[in-house]
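Action item from last week, closing it out:
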Amino acid sequence: MTAAAFLPTIVTVLLGLVLVVVFAFVAFLPLYCILDAASRPSATFRAAGSNKALWVVLLIWLNLFAAVVYLSSVRPRLEATEILP
């Protein structure tokens, strides 16, 4: 067999690896955000002008979209107003 015969196999394997990484990102990012939101005190959410229960529900229902919004806008406000026990 020539090297050209193995090229489709290599491309298929690399494409499969890329899809696995993308799937893992899409699957675990919302899970990380749900755990992050659930582990923060409700008082921190109130101090940041948000609602903990609402964000946990949004993260469950809207998954990746809500996770991106949570990480980009809500989480920085929570960290800035974090109430330490």
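Closing note: The chain is about 85% helix and 0% strand.
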